[in-house]
Amino acid sequence: MSKRKYGLALSLVLAASALLGACGTDKDKEKDTSSSTGGNASDFSIAMVTDVGGIDDKSFNQSAWEGIKQFGKDHNMSEGDGGYAYLQSKDDSDYTPNLNALTRRDFDLVFGVGFLMEDAINTIAEQQKETNYAIIDGVVDQPNVASILFKEQEGAYLAGVAAALMTKTDKIGFVGGMEIPVIERFEAGFVAGVAAVKPDLKVDVKYTGSFDDAALGKAAAGRMYSSGIDIIFHAAGGTGNGVFSEAKERKEADKNADVWVIGVDSDQYEEGKVGEENITLTSMLKRVDVAVQDISNLAKEGKFPGGETKVYGLHDDGVALADSRGAIPQDVLDQVEEYKQKIADGEIEVPEFAK
Amino acid sequence: MVPIISIILGLLVGALVMIFSGYNPVNGYIALWNGIFGDAYAIGETIRQISPYILAGLAVAFAFRTGLFNIGVEGQLMVGWFAAAYVGSAFTMPMYIHLPLSLLAAAAAGALWGLIPGLLKAKFRVHEVIVTIMMNYIALHVVNALIKTVSGGGFKTEKIQPTASLRSDFLSNLTDYSTLHYGIFIALSMVIVMWFILEKTKTGFELKSVGFNENASHYAGMNVNKNIVLSMIISGAFAGLGGAMEALGTFGNMTSRGGFTGIGFDGIAVALLGANTPLGVIFGASLFGSLKYGANNMPNAANIPLEIVSIVIALIIFFVASGYIIRVAILRMNKKKEAK
C-alpha cells in the first residue's frame, strides 16, 4: 500500500521536473528574444566577475561594481541582460565559468576584477574574439583585452607620509593580504612614505596570506596594537575588515585608546565608526570605479583600448587619499599635499618594489 | 527510496528559504537544473567539477575502511597539485612518458603527505586526525613557498607543457569550450582500482579487517601497523591524483593560495554520503559536484544572491546526509498504520 503511494509521489515529482525543465527552455528563449529586440535604452552592455572576496568586500570588488553601476546610471541602462550585471566567484575554479556565462549573455564588455583572473581571461579571450574583456590589476596580452594597472605605490606613499606625521608612539604597522605584486606595491609605497618623514621608523609588515579571512586580520592587528603600534595601514581586502574590528573593540573598551586604521581601495570611513568616534584615519583610494567607467566610456565610443595597458596614478586621480573628516589636522594635510605635488611633478620617484 | 525523499525534502526546505527571502524558487531551481544539465557547456563543466570530488571522496573512503579518519585529503591534494604542475611544466618529453609521470608525481606527493601521519599513528599512536589537520596547514604554506621559489618570486607556476595536459580539443569542442578534460576517466578508473584492492586482494582484506577490529586482526597474525601506513599511503595517492586533476586539467598551473581549496573537506562528505564504498563515492561526488557547479547559475539566471544559494545547497546536502532520520520516520509511519 505505502509502496504504491511512494511510487505515485515519485512519478509526480518526475512529471513535475519534466514540466519545469520544459518551462526553463521556454523562458530562456523568451529572454533571448527580449534582449535582442533591446529592452534597454542603450545597445551597449557591461558586466563584471568578482574575485573571491565578493561583491560587498567594502573595497576592491565593491569599488568596481560602484563604477559599473554609475556608468549604468549615466547611460540610462538597467541591471540585467543588455544592461549591466555582475557574477561572484566563490573559488578560483569559478572564474572561467563565470566569464563564460557573462559572455554567453552577450555583454559587450566583461571586466575581470583581480590579477588572479589573468589566466582565465587569457584563455577565454582567445576563444571568444567577439567580446571585449578588461582585467584589473593584471596584464593580458590579447587584442580584445584591455589591461588596467594602478600606481598603488603613489597613493600608499601619501598614506605613509600621513601615518608618519600622525603617529604618537612612532610605531606603524602594515597588514597585507597575499604576497603578490599588487600588494607589494602598497607596501613599498607605504614604507617609502614613512621613511621620507621619519627615516628611523621601521614599519612592522605582516602578510596574512589571505584576502577573505577577517580573523587573520584581527589577530595581526591585535598583536600590532599590543606592541604599541597606533596606526595600521591595511591592504588586505576582506581580511582587513578584521583590522577594523580589532581597532573598534579597543576603542570601545577605552575611549582614549590611540588606535587608527588607514583604509584601502574605497573610502572606509563607515567601517571605522564607533559610536561618536571613528578610528579611520583616512583611506587610500584606489579608484577602480574611475578606471572601470573610463574603459567603459572608451568602449562605448568604439575606442576600446584592446591590447593596451592603462596605468592610473596620482596625476589622473587613479589613486588618492580620502577625506579624513577631521582626523588629520590641516597642517599635516598641507604637508601631505606638498609630497603629492612632488610626486606629480616627478620630483619623487616612488619605488614599486619592497626592499 | 530514502535518498529520493531526502533530495525532495531538501529542495522543499530550500524553496521555503527562497520564498521567505523574496525569491522565486521555481526560477531558482530551473536555473540550478540548467546550470547542471542546461547545455553541452554546463554538462562539461559539471563533469569537470565532479572529477576531483571523486578522487577526494575515494581518499577519505579508503582510509575510513581501515578505520582511519583522513582529514588531510586537502593537504595531500594540494601537494599533489603542485607536484603535477611542476613536473608538467619543468620537463620536456613525449606525451606517453610525460603525462603518466606527472600523474605519478602527484600521486607520490600525496602518498608522502599521507605517509607521515600514517607512520606517526603506527609507531607512536599519535591520532591521525590531529596530524592530518596540521599537515593541511603545512601543505598550504609549503606549497605557497615552493611556488614562489620555482617561479622566481612570482605567485604562480608556469603553464604545463601540452604533453602533460589532460585537456583535449576533442572534449573542448564537444562541450562548447568547457574546461572538461580526460581526468574523469582517471577518476573512474581509480574507483575500480579501489574496489579491486578492497574486494579482490589479500591486502584489501587485511586493510578492511584492521578497520573492523585492530585487536582481532593483530591476534589473527596481521601486521596492523603496516596496514595503517599502507592505507594512508594509498589514500594520500588518491588525494594527490585529485590535485593532478586541477593541475593537468582544469587550471594547467598552480597559483599561490590564500586558503584551502575545500575539495578535500568536501571529500569527507562525499565519502560519507557514499557510505565509503567505491560506487557510493561516484554518487556522492556527482551530487556534490553538480550542485556546486550548478549553483553558480542561480545568481546568473535567476538573480538569487550567492549567499541564499549557499544556504539552499547546504540544505539539500544536509537532508541527503540525514537519510537515517527519514528512514526512522518511514518506519514509524508504517507502524502506526499497522496498529490501525
Automatic annotation (TrEMBL), chain A:
Subcellular localization: Cell membrane
CDD domains hit by this protein: PBP1_PrnA-like (cd06354)
Keywords assigned: Cell membrane, Lipoprotein, Membrane, Signal
Keyword Cell cycle belongs to the record: no
PROSITE patterns given in the database record: PROKAR_LIPOPROTEIN (PS51257)
UniProt topology in membrane: Lipid-anchor
InterPro entries: BMP_lipoprotein (IPR050957), Peripla_BP_I (IPR028082), PnrA-like (IPR003760)
Domain ABC transporter substrate-binding protein PnrA-like: 46-352
Signal sequence coordinates: 1-22
Family, as annotated: Belongs to the BMP lipoprotein family.
Protein name in the entry: BMP family protein
Organism per entry: Sporosarcina quadrami
Classification lineage: Bacteria, Bacillati, Bacillota, Bacilli, Bacillales
